[in-house]
Amino acid sequence: MKIMKKITIGYLILAAIIIAGGYFNVISLRSADKGFHEVSEESWPRLEALEKMRYASQRIVSSTTEYGFLMAESRASGVNAKDELEKEVELIQSGVSYLNDALGRYRDLSSNSDNELEIYESIKAKGDELIETAFMIINLKKKGIFGERILEMKEDFEDIEMDILDLIKKAIENEKHELEGADKYVHDAFHRTVIMIVVFAAAIFIIAFLNDIYISRAMVNPILTLKDASQKVSQGEFNIKLAPRSNDEIGELTNSFNRMVSDLKNIRDALIMAKEAAEAANLSKSRFLANMSHEIRTPLNGIIGMTTLTMDTELTSEQRDYVVTIQKSAHALLDILSDILD
Q1: Cα(67)–Cα(84) distance, rounded to whole angstroms?
Q2: Mean pLDDT confidence for 221-226
C-alpha cells in the first residue's frame, strides 16, 4: 500500500471519529435540551397558574378580613363606610374570578396524571370552601351578627386559608422538583458530553500519535538513512547498497538511490580507466617527442656547428653567402622544431 494511501486512511479514521463524536454529542445535548424544554413548557405555565391561585386566595382572605375590620370600625364609630365595603366586596369577587380562572388554567395544563388531578381536586375543593366561607362571613357581617359564631367562622376561614396555601405550596414544590429533575438531566447530559469529548479527544490523540509514529518509521527514518548514505557517496564511498523496507514510494526511492550509486560507480570506474589511458598516451607522446627532439636537433646542431667552422676558413664571397644561408636556414628550422616539440 502506498504511503499516501496509508496516511489518508489514518486521517479518514480521525475525521470519522471527530464526526461521530460531534454527532453523538449534538444528539445527546439536543435530547437533553428537548426534554428540558418539554418539561419547562409544561411546568412553567402550571407554576404561573399556581401562583395566581395563591395570589387570588390571599386576595380573598385579605379583602374578607378588611371587610370585617371596616364593618367593626363603622359600627363602633357610626361612620358610613358603604363605598369602602363595596370596594372590598368587588375585590373579593375579582379574587374569586381570578382563582376560578387559575384553576381552569391549571386543569387545562394538567397531563391527566393521578397526582395532578388529585392536586387540582384538592385545591378546587378548598377554594370553593374558602369562597363559601368568605361570603358567609360577609353576609353575617351585613346582618349585624357578631360574637362567637363569627369567631368560629374566622378560625375555620384561617384554617381553610392555611390548607389551600399548603396545597398550592406542595403543588409548586412538585413542579419545581420536576424542573430540577429536568435541569439535572441537562447537567448530566452535559457532563456525559464532556466525558465523551475527553474520550474522543484521547482517542484522536492516540491515533494521531500512532499515525505520527508510522510516518516517522515509514518516511523520516528511511529518509535519514538515505541522507547518511548520500553523504558517504559524496565522500567517494560507492560500495553502498540500501535494503528497501517496503514496496511504497520510499522503497522505490531506495531502489532508485541504489541504481544511482551503481551508475555513479560505473561512471567513476570508466573515468578512472579513461584517465589512465590518457595518462599512458600522454607519456608515450612525451617519450616520442623527446626522442624526436633529440634525433632532429642533433643533426641540425651539427649543421649549425659545421657552418660556423666553415665560416672561419677562407671562402669566396659567393661561398660565404651560401654558408650563411645554410646557417640561417638551420637556425630557422631549429626554432620551428623547438616551438613544435617544446
Answers
A1: 8
A2: 77
